[in-house]
Design brief:
Elements: E1 2-6, H1 15-24, E2 29-32, E3 34-35, E4 38-39, H2 45-58, E5 61-65, H3 78-95, E6 99-102, H4 117-134, E7 137-141, H5 151-161, E8 166-170, H6 172-177, H7 182-190, E9 194-199, E10 201-202, E11 209-210, H8 219-229, E12 233-237, E13 243-244, E14 249-250, H9 252-270, E15 274-275
Parallel strand pairs: 1-12, 1-15, 2-5, 5-6, 6-7, 7-8, 8-9, 9-12
Antiparallel strand pairs: 3-4, 10-11, 13-14
Amino acid sequence: MITLTGFADEISPELDVQLDVLESQGIRHLELRSVWGKNVAHLSDEELLAIKGALDYKGFSVSSIGSPIGKIGVLEDFEVHMEDFQRVVKAAHVLGSRYIRIFSFFIPEGENPGDYRDEVLRRMKELVRVAEEENVVLLHENEKDIYGDNAERCLDILSSCQSPNLRAAFDPANFVQCGVKPFTEAYPLLKEFVEYMHVKDARFADGHVVPAGDGDGEMKALYQALLERGFVGFASMEPHLAAAGPFSGFSGPDLFVTAVERFKELLEEVGMPVNSSSKSNC
């Protein structure tokens, strides 16, 4: 069973608009990446408490913290970055989120990712160590140009760290943009680690992001396989239909709704049930 959630800052920077649009689509969770133009890693204690109050008042929960952790160069200062990570962990605790999305560090352009494997794994294991201490689960997203951008290196990270506190956030569009077939090539390698889905599709021809099922992300096959395995978890809308960049994306209210409606149609075609409760056991 799928529980719908989404990167609400793709709707608007304003929290009230984000929640109104999600509510209109029957979605009672959000993946918190930014509010009021501020990334979650830079929100003050007062802002976090204000967000928590607004969510509680309207009956919303945070499915994951959409953090920027690991979205720096592999040669950049990791100790400074760990300060942001501690801030993100605090946000997860304040907002009641079990999950935190992370990345595995940008590789210098034109260089062999394998040359940086040891440093990537050192950093990832340190993040996992903190996650285990803090009782949160890190979700590694397969972002383009980081170490774990293809299926083999994602598997390397997840297998080398080997922790229940590090799982995979599976993003079909990002795999397509790296020349990887999401269901045919990536899912068979990573399925035992997949605990969270990002709803984003793209085309091989130009890398352009499109609504779920309209690209080469093999979305129907993916969700059919998830249904057959009895998957219970979040599917997070990340449409990127108006703008897409290395650190954020934007769709606006209308295109976000279009993306949700298209995804619901795809789930109906597959026969995947959707959890309509405001609470989730995911």
